[in-house]
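haha ok so turns out i had the wrong file open the whole time. this is the CORRECT one, sorry everyone. sequence first:
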Amino acid sequence: MTAPSTHPQISTVGELRASSHLQKSLREEIRDNLLAALREGRDPWPGLHGFEDTVIPQLERALIAGHDVVLLGERGQGKTRLLRTMVGLLDEWTPVISGSELGEHPYEPITVQSQQAAASYGDDLRVSWRHRDERYAEKLATPDTSVADLIGDVDPMKVAEGRSLGDPETIHFGLIPRSHRGIVAINELPDLAERIQVAMLNVMEERDIQIRGYVLRLPLDVLVVASANPEDYTNRGRIITPLKDRFGAEIRTHYPTELEDEVAVIRQEAELVADVPDYLIEILARFTRNLRESTSVDQRSGVSARFSIAGAETIAAAALHRATVQGEVEAVARVVDLETAVDVLGGKIEFETGEEGRETEVLTHLLRTATAETVRHHFRGLDFALLVAAIEDGAMVTTGEQVTARDFLTGLPVLGESELYDEVCDRIGATNDGQRAGAIELALEGLYLGRKIGKDTDGSETVYG
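then structure:
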């Protein structure tokens, strides 16, 4: 994210009018900025992978039409990230009446206080500038969310000061009115109690506010966007039909359809404390995709992208742990570290009824399948006959969570003048000891999965033989 530029130095309404500033509605502003980005070939949705031909075109059409939007999809499909990216479609700086509670445009005050200030000061009305990041508000819907949180309520302190109960100045505005001229995002919308959803109906359609028995006619200019799990999955609540009807667009999200997009998401989101080679990221991506296709996994709950992200972070941590304990100069993740991910990730998956007790077995099987697919992808055409023959003649290769890369490489069987090890490393792009050890470990694991050699695991030590 680039640092915001300095806002304009205009400080009064008179100066604003003299600058030929034009007021736009929020939807016009978003539409114009989106179309400008498309004309110039700029990507309005940085950091989003796998939605280019499906979700994003639908969302762009909805925004051009000026619709409120609800995104439906399983957990970990990037719904919240997509909503937050919409901030980039707002003008970087926008003028507001200084001190106004709702951030009104200087040309169009809508609250009593701002209207009085505009009448009193005229062209000398003070103007402040609000950055687009301040015009995005996000609320995680929880069962304890109240009408006051979203819409507003009567402020007893203002009543106690002597104002009458029907005075508009006694109102404390909620999140949606305070997002006037901005975007308000509500995550997990079905979790809102139905009576709270009812309170949103007038705000989204008639754009007025009903609080404690009286109506405030405020021409609110706000874009409401929301996310939700599909109704056939969430049992915590539902989006009431009248509210669904008020969203102009209902867009279904999905997990990445291409392996490259899955890998890109992991690389982008994971905070890695050690070097994790690309082939390990590929294994985790394939592992995640296999889980999404498994009949043993409850597909209604989905397999979040956070699963593979957490897996990458776990094997990076395992590599750093080994390097620290064993004194390795470079911390590089290897195939042996994948097992540490299986140990901690099982709780992120919902299994089908009847799979109790088989969770680890299912995870291990699908991880091996992903590893075998990756081996075939990278080592297709390589002849491992010499290595297999050496192991059949009694050579053993020892590795493990605490076996250093140097010790592993030293213990490899000698293959005469064969350049097999170098060819394996070249296929992976391995350069240092850690990467070379990982590449050869991948080849050995592939031979084991192909039933060419044996493997024995005892605690933290693994022996191929």
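Residues 13-252 form a domain with the Rossmann fold fold (CATH 3.40.50.300).
again sry for the mixup
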